[in-house]
What we know:
single chain; 115 residues; mainly beta; 3-stranded antiparallel beta sheet; 2 helices
Amino acid sequence: MAKVFLIDPFAREVTEHDIDLRGLDEVYALMQCQYVEAVRLRGVPSDWLYLDEDGRGKAGQRHFLCYLFPGQELCGRAVWFGGADSEGEAIATKATLQYVRGTIMFEPIEDEDED
């Protein structure tokens, strides 16, 4: 099992999870998507994000910003993980929950009751 963080713009929270990173089945289940794209974070020696590859094309999508992936609004849920080992297998992150939460900003929710 490996420590990862789920970034959930629908719940507007970042949560820690222990999942099996051999294969992507548990990543897909956690992110509630079918396809992921791995992107490297800037300023962190090894950590990456799995992003919902189809996120931009889905209706009703929520967004967030990550200060370590500047200039781009990210769509849907994401999983923060520790990069890959020498054999190319995804590994656990060494980041803390507090650190990860400090790099994420969720989009504001508009009050639906306002006129």
